[in-house]
Amino acid sequence: MAALVEAVGVRKSFGHTEVLKGVDLAVDRGEVVCLLGPSGAGKSTFLRCVNHLETIDAGRIWVDGVPVGFRQAHGKLYELREREVARQRRDIGMVFQRFNLFPHRTALENVTEGPVRVLGLDRAAARADAMALLDRVGLSDKALSYPRQLSGGQQQRVAIARALAMEPKLMLFDEPTSALDPELVGEVLDVMVGLARDGMTMIVVTHEIGFARSVADQVAFMVDGAVVETGPPSQVLDNPQQPRTQQFLAKVY
Ligand code: ADP
Ligand code: MG
Predict the structure, then answer these.
(1) Does residue 253 lie in a domain region?
(2) Which of 103, 164, 179, 202 is the most exposed place for a label (fewest CB within 10 A)?
(3) Residue nearest to atom 26 of ligand 1 (CA)
(4) Does 147 fall in a domain?
(5) Is residue 206 lining ligand 1, measured as CB closer than 6 Å?
(6) Residue 109's domain spans which residues?
(7) Does the pLDDT of residue 253 top 90, yes or no?
(8) Cα of 224 to ligand 1 centre, how many Å?
(9) pTM (2 decimals)?
(10) What is the residue with the minimal CA distance to atom 14 of ligand 1?
(11) Any idea which ligand is nearest the CA of 222?
(12) Residue 196 located in a structural domain
């Protein structure tokens, strides 16, 4: 079967600075890919391109057979308009380092907002789904709490539930635990482990090598705007072939 995500030769510049210099990456259905690499390598930019939060300059990204930012008709590609882009983006859940929950809404309201407003679900159905999702992230008892009443780890779990409420076929995580106190990292990673077990396709930018080792099907190492090495964790983490991967791992271990 074709990959769920396939990026080929993706290039992206900001002004005169080329940040992505030909990124290639393929992610199979149900696969967890951990994207590792030093700060400034272009990891966040690449995730944003997958979600069409950035427009790429060259190359192509397919998600589920459809080129991001385009639609296919009569064998031709047509660039999407803003509204159509939003529709395409619905299929992709994204969780950032900062939780960006709506501060004046409860956990439950944060999770129901998208399904009600974007998918047009009726509120009762959305609430039932949201309660099930809050349960899945271990927060059914916090449904009526406001973000400020929750720890960072709890807020991040609400953010994951909120993304799942849109029934994405792909989840993107951009350093989801980097802003958390160390003792709260585990509870968020546990939720992600559960998602992986349930077969969710995920691209996870992370510095959590332990997570990558135990959960990733594939580790991709990115540096200076390109994926320079990819393979199973046992290969990339324990027996890296590229000098730059070796140097990076020597530093973080
Ligand atoms: P990483 O997530 O691997 O740390 P980023 O994708 O955030 O890397 O950034 C890669 C490079 O692109 C950095 O040099 C960063 O400063 C630059 N960059 C990212 N976003 C923008 C932007 N919107 N405008 C200008 N430069 C940007
Ligand atoms: Mg980043």
Answers:
(1) no
(2) 103
(3) 14
(4) yes
(5) no
(6) 101-167
(7) no
(8) 11
(9) 0.95
(10) 40
(11) 1
(12) no
Nearest CA to ligand 1 atom 23: 14
**pLDDT score at 88:** 86
CB atoms < 10 A from the CB of 150, how many?
Answer: 19
Question: What domain count does the chain have?
Answer: 1
Sheet-wide strand order for 58-63: 17-27, 5-14, 58-63, 66-67
In a domain, 229, yes or no: no
pLDDT, tens digit, 9 for 90 and up, residues 51-98: 999 999 999 999 998 899 888 888 888 888 888 888 888 899 999 998
Residue range 174-206, pLDDT digits in tens: 999 999 999 999 999 999 999 999 999 999 999
* Pairing mode of beta strands 218-223, 32-36: parallel
44 lines ligand 1 (CB under 6 A): yes
Task: Look at the alpha carbons of 214, 218, 222, 225 in this order and tell me if their dihedral is positive or negative.
Answer: negative
Output the CA 166–ligand 2 centroid distance in Å.
Answer: 24
Q: Return the ligand 1 atom nearest residue 46 CA.
A: 6
Task: Pick the ligand that lies closest to the CA of residue 14.
Answer: 1
